């Protein structure tokens, strides 16, 4: 009797330690999760006390009737592919070049990491100014050096807006991938290279047979961060283009925001959020699977 | 180390040219921002030199006086400080419970909490808005801070638990024999031993909270409550014609970030690198 009371007290006081986290979780993760699913079955403007049950109507609209969610998904896919190629390619090359013996290696590291430190809002304001159609330094320089024909509204034209956004996106985050690769490179035992050199391997063989295979875990991390970052992107595009022109730079999170707070379609917005959530969940599961397999 | 040495000095020159070019690409936008912020109202549109012909320092005074920058910055410091302390305290408390204490359903609760990592703000801000509206917390500091802290918890709990479990139990056993309870062990043994990991989680959350924008966009309509990223959008709305003042304002808001980076550069890079590799 006495023993079980003590055990109960022990459990209770232990549970106390996880209570604050659980309370926040229930209120701001679990409840919103369930609420979001509920919202998807209604047509609601977000303020009025009346809402209309529409069954799976919102899902039909988002997935089949309207094209904008798929367009936003395609735009994210583009951002992701550009990000994957440049983050993995450029950052890896830079990390290999900046090994410890390179003069000024620590200075390069400091400088390359400045863009990732800047808030996305600030990055977007700076680049919107540089790329400005009339007063931007890019177009004005092009005009001054006789390439005026190349000057164009980079963020305002359908053919260049998404590419421009992708470049800004890479500018703001390649430094992070660079630092991750640098850490990965320093984790490769030097003895491996020495042994291979004794066996007569040349520089290219050292790179392709030792460096690349041993960096695959880091490449996976960089790729996952790039994908998750692109899928959730919002801040930068909100300032750069707000999805314009004609939705060519629209991304899911921005679409959800505009659908809810500009057009007052909370049901549609919630439905898109559920689909985005499922995509993120699947991507995260893949991430866990991969990082478990790759952990060394 | 230098695994690959480029014997050829031409190659070396190429390498450094490339590295310097990339460095210039990183710095130029920032320098251009500062340069633009120091030009006159018309010069900002026409003067293409990186070093302005005359320095209009008064832009900074005007930007400061005419906008609510001081309020935005104060709010950001306040939100960041509370969010970081909140995440550190609540997450370490929970992680200690998961790592060291026994109670029924422990693992189920742990993994459920981690699940919320998969529903970040971009996928959940609609129902959070609805919830805050029902609780009358829209446009309040509390309504912003609670979801912000909640968003930082799962990763922090995950990192803390892993670290706490790696601490040898000898010290705790000794403390227990000396009469320490759970709280004493958490507060006097586990936390002091965890300073490096606390610092990493703090830095990670500090940057996250300072840069946060979407939640602030959804929660606030009152300017006097806005953090700096959200405030900048208001600010540029007021100054869309006078670019030089707008840029002076932006420069003011990134001074804390750049100072933080200058002082903590090594810790920041280390913390973010380890954070990404662990989590």
Topology:
The complex is a heterodimer of chains A (296) and B (279).
Chain A: H1 2-39, E1 42-43, E2 52-53, H2 57-65, H3 68-97, H4 105-112, H5 114-117, H6 120-130, H7 137-144, H8 161-186, H9 190-198, H10 203-231, H11 235-240, H12 252-261, H13 266-294
Antiparallel strand pairs in A: 1-2
Chain B: H1 9-37, H2 43-46, H3 58-66, H4 69-100, H5 106-115, H6 121-134, H7 141-166, H8 170-177, H9 182-193, H10 195-211, H11 214-219, H12 228-238, H13 243-278
Helix pairs in contact in B: 1-13, 3-13, 4-7, 4-10, 4-12, 7-10, 8-9, 10-13, 12-13
What does this structure look like?
The complex is a heterodimer of chains A (about 300) and B (about 280). With about 300 residues, chain A is mainly α. Chain A has one domain: MetI-like fold (Orthogonal Bundle), CATH 1.10.3720. In chain A, strands 1-2 form a two-stranded antiparallel ribbon. In chain A, a hairpin with an 8-residue loop joins strand 1 and strand 2. In chain A, helix 2 packs across helix 13, helix 3 runs antiparallel to helix 10 and helix 10 packs antiparallel against helix 13. The radius of gyration of chain A is 25 Å and the shape is flat. Chain B has 2 domains: about 55 residues; about 170 residues, MetI-like (MetI-like fold). Helices cover about 75% and strands about 0% of the residues of chain B. Chains A and B meet through helix 1, helix 3, helix 4, helix 5 and helix 6 of A and helix 1, helix 4, helix 5, helix 6 and helix 7 of B.
């Amino acid at each position: 009797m006495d023993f079980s009371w003590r055990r109960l007290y022990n459990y209770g006081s232990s549970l106390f330690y996880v209570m604050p986290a659980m309370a926040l979780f229930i209120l701001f993760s679990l409840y919103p999760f369930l609420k979001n699913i509920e919202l998807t079955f209604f047509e609601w403007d977000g303020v009025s006390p009346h809402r209309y049950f529409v069954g799976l109507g919102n899902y039909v609209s988002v997935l089949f009737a309207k094209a904008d969610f798929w367009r936003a998904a395609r735009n994210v896919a583009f951002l992701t592919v550009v990000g994957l190629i440049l983050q993995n390619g450029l950052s890896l090359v830079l990390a290999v070049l900046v090994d410890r013996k390179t003069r000024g290696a620590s200075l390069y590291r400091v400088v390359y990491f400045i863009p990732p430190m800047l808030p996305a809002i600030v990055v977007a304001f700076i680049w919107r100014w540089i790329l400005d159609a009339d007063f931007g330094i890019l177009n004005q320089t092009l005009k001054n050096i006789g390439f005026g024909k190349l000057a164009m509204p980079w963020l305002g034209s359908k053919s260049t807006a998404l590419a421009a956004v992708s470049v800004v996106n890479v500018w703001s985050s390649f430094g992070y991938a660079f630092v991750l690769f640098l850490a990965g490179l320093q984790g490769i035992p030097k003895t491996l290279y020495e042994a291979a050199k004794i066996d007569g391997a040349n520089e290219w063989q050292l790179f392709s047979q030792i460096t690349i295979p041993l960096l695959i875990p880091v490449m996976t991390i960089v790729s996952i961060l790039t994908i998750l970052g692109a899928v959730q992107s919002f801040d930068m595009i909100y300032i750069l283009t707000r999805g314009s022109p004609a939705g060519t730079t629209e991304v899911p999170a921005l679409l959800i925001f505009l659908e809810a707070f500009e057009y007052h379609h909370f049901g549609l917005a919630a439905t898109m959020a559920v689909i985005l959530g499922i995509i993120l969940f699947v991507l995260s599961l893949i991430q866990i699977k991969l990082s478990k397999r790759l952990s060394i | 180390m230098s695994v690959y040495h480029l014997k050829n000095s031409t190659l070396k020159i190429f390498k450094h040219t490339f590295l310097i070019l990339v460095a210039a690409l990183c710095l130029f936008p920032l320098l251009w921002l500062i340069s633009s912020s120091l030009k006159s109202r018309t010069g900002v549109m026409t003067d293409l030199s990186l070093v302005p012909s005359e320095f209009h320092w008064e832009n900074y005074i005007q930007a400061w006086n005419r906008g609510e920058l001081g309020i935005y910055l104060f709010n950001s410091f306040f939100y960041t400080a509370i969010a970081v302390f909140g995440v550190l305290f609540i997450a370490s408390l929970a992680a200690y419970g998961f790592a060291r204490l026994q109670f029924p359903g422990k693992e189920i609760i742990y993994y459920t909490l981690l699940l919320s990592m998969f529903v970040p703000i971009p996928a959940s801000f609609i129902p959070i808005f609805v919830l805050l509206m029902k609780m009358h917390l829209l446009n309040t500091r509390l309504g912003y801070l609670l979801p912000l802290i909640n968003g930082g918890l799962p990763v922090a709990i995950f990192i803390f638990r892993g670290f706490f479990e790696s601490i040898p139990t000898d010290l705790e056993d000794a403390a227990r024999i000396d009469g320490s309870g759970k709280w004493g062990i958490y507060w006097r043994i586990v936390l002091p031993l965890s300073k490096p990991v606390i610092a990493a989680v703090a830095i990670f959350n500090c940057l996250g909270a300072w840069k946060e924008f979407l939640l602030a966009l959804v929660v606030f309509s009152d300017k006097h409550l806005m953090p700096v990223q959200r405030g900048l959008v208001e600010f540029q709305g007021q100054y869309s014609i006078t670019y030089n003042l707008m840029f002076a304002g932006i420069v003011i808001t990134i001074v804390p970030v750049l100072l933080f980076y200058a002082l903590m550069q090594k810790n920041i890079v280390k913390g973010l690198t380890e954070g990404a590799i662990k989590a």
